[in-house]
Amino acid sequence: MQGYRSLIGQAGKSIRSGSRGSLKTALAALALMLGMATSPEARAETFSWTAVAEETIAALNEASQHHAEGDIAQSKRAITRAYFGVFEEQKMEAALRKMLGESHTFMVERQFSTLRKNVAKATPEDFSRTVETLAEQLRADALQLDALGVPQEVYNAR
């Protein structure tokens, strides 16, 4: 019960201060705690931002593996596929921009860019650590989008 009060208090504070990002984060966490988010069984049958994040992370892990093997060209291709072939193509970038804000999305996009720019000069350990950091961020963002019930279809161009 104390956890609910804390989140409700945070949501109220966010409303009073006009902080949209904090409010969305608080409401997403509250929805998860109250069980308002879809069940794992329902998510398996419907769209999930978590699945998009995991697909993106799989491509990033592939990039990390290529990097560790010294195949920089393949590593760059995997990073490009993670960003353009999954993150952007499946509309996670658009959903983040709309729901979590421009500055947050810019920070996530910057992590992709940093990976690609530093692929040739980063040590395997540093590269892997950067991939892990981005993976954590993508998972957290996907949980927020799923908790808010953000549908992918909203972001499809017609």
Give me the secondary-structure topology.
Elements: H1 2-17, H2 20-34, H3 40-45, H4 49-68, H5 72-88, H6 92-100, H7 102-118, H8 124-148
Share of helical residues: over 70%
Shape: elongated
Number of helices: 8
**Measured distance between first and last alpha carbons:** 44 Å
Order of helices and strands: HHHHHHHH
Whole-number tally of structural domains: 2
- Average pLDDT works out at 81
Short description:
Helices cover 79% and strands 0% of the residues. With 158 residues, the chain is mainly α. It folds into 2 domains: 35 residues; 114 residues, no CATH class.
What does this structure look like?
The protein is mostly helical and 158 residues long. The chain has two domains: 2-36; 42-155, no CATH class. 79% of the residues lie in helices and 0% in strands. The protein is built from eight helices and no strands. The chain has helices at residues 2-17, 20-34, 40-45, 49-68, 72-88, 92-100, 102-118, 124-148. Helix 4 runs antiparallel to helix 8 and helix 5 packs antiparallel against helix 7. The chain is elongated, with a radius of gyration of 17 Å. Residues 1-5 and 32-44 have low confidence and may be disordered.
List keywords for this structure.
single chain, 158 residues, mainly alpha, 2 domains, 0% strand, disordered N terminus
